[in-house]
Amino acid sequence: MKTTRPGEEIRKPFEQASTLPGKVFHSPDICADELDRIFGRMWLAVGREEDIPEPGNYLTCDIGPESILLLRDHDGVARAFYNVCRHRGTRLGSDGEERKLKGIQCPYHAWTYGLDGCLTAAPLMEATPGFSKADYPLVPVGLDTWEGFLFVNLDESSASLTSQIAGLPDLSRFHLSALRRGKRIAYNVAANWKLIGENYNECYHCAHVHPQLQRVTHYLSGGRSRSGPNLTGGPMTLNEGCTTMTMSGTSRRSPFPDLDPEDYRNVQYFHLFPNLLLSILPDYVVTHTVWPVGTAQSRVVCEWFFSSASMAGEDFDPSDAVEFWDVTNKQDWVLCETAQKGVQSRGYRPGRYQAGERCVHDFDRWYLGYLGQPDC
Predict the structure, then answer these.
(1) Which end of the chain is more exposed for a tag (fewer CB within 10 A), N or C?
(2) For residues 30 and 196, what is the distance between their CA atoms, to the nearest angstrom?
(3) Which residue, 374, 376, 366, is CA-closest to 36?
(4) Burial class (CB in 10 A: 0-12, 13-18, 19+), 123
(5) Does CATH place domain 44-162 in 3.30.70.1050?
(6) Span 316-363, pLDDT tens digits
(7) Positive or negative: CA dihedral 180, 183, 189, 195
(8) Tens digit of pLDDT for each residue in 11-63?
(9) Which CATH class is domain 8-41+168-371?
(10) % helix, strand, coil for the chain, step of 5
């Protein structure tokens, strides 16, 4: 009798496909492969340009075992480097330190680097034959920007960020690059990063899990999904009388200028693979960046962005938007953590997709296509 390899059922047309096999959510070998071949080779959203607005400003981010240092140099150019001293590998910076640098000094032996990454001082190394500071700059990391977001890529031979997000519709009317952060919350979730991505990409669960969401947008209101080689998403419609996603469905904030008429009634959801979840409402934007910490642990950073005009108002208060998504997030994390326990069971078998899970299917197909057939 012919047998089907695990994972092959997902490659069928949506109406016939089955979900991912359980092992991809809990195998240490597959997790290591993902860190190398997905998070080590794709463009990853790591922050915003507003995080490093002036020369000397910097931030660090962890990508699996790697630590990356992002900064703005004296010429105003954004740069990224491995956060590793060229002497004996000591970590150079951490987010708990002073946020403005004149230079980068190793805490171990005081090797010092300029903001362009060049080694400027190496105490007593003149006694080492043939040593030249010019031979030991910080190792650069690929850095690019899109709509105010900072992306890094550890793969020196990677394709461009533009090619990775091909298929994303024109969002210029939302002026995403001009938005500013109003709130940031980091969550630790005891679930695999893919379960969090799948959860974001469907509202099949919303009616009985998110009553506050159901009051402002019906779970069956999704419009035509859009997909590209490395993304999926689409709109959902706000209920009659609702103008945004808050507990009341309304807000004192004005909508963004330059919107199309349908934008006042829709919420746009996009998953830019692998780690950026982008939710665009008429008056604010929410993002989630998802980071694998282990096979069954993820760190999710949720951020709320508003127009400068809204934030400049004396009565600006982001708490209505923050409360809505914080409640929704915590409800979702319970689901993801429960699913994590289930997919680890020897009794788990892949199921079938519901009609509203087309974007989940897009994500799962991308995952198997990008990673190749994992040994599952």
Answers:
(1) N
(2) 17
(3) 374
(4) exposed
(5) no
(6) 999 999 999 999 999 999 999 999 999 999 999 999 999 999 999 999
(7) negative
(8) 788 899 999 999 999 999 999 999 999 999 999 999 999 999 999 999 999 99
(9) alpha beta
(10) 30, 25, 45
